Amino acid sequence: MGDLPQLREVGWLYDVDDPHLVLTLVRLFERADAGWEVHLNSPVEAETQVVVWPDEASARDVLAAIYADGGLRGRWRIRQPAAL
User: Fold this and answer.
1) Residue 49 phi/psi, 5° resolution?
2) CA-based nearest residue to 58, from 35, 31, 25
3) Which domain holds residue 63?
4) Fewest Cβ atoms closer than 10 Å to its Cβ: which of 21, 23, 29, 79?
């Protein structure tokens, strides 16, 4: 189980007019090989977009850009699960 990516942050983008409508789901994972993954899902897209970064800072820069862009279209709910 130690080889599985660990979820470090998750964000749901909700529609401004419908607080129950999720527009986007974004997740940040720490990989066992010291890399980082950003997963981006949208209900209208069939596939999850996954981008791998070599370090946390680069992955978080992309995550911040996603949050900023999404903030123009809706409201984010962001959670950081406690490390196990």
Assistant:
1) -90, 130
2) 35
3) 1-5+28-79
4) 79
This prediction has a pTM of 0.88
Percentage of the residues of the chain whose pLDDT score is greater than 70: 95
Model confidence band, residue 84 (pLDDT cutoffs 50, 70, 90): very low
CB of 50 within 8 A of CB of 31?
A: no
Q: What is the mean pLDDT of the chain?
A: 91
Task: Specify if 11 maps to a domain.
Answer: no
- The Cα–Cα gap between 65 and 33 comes to 24
What single DSSP character describes residue 17?
S
Give buried/exposed letters for 48-61 (b at 16+ CB in 10 A, else e).
eeeeebeeeeebbe
In-domain check, residue 47: yes
Phi-psi map region of 39: left, alpha, beta (phi>0 left; psi -120 to 50 alpha)? beta
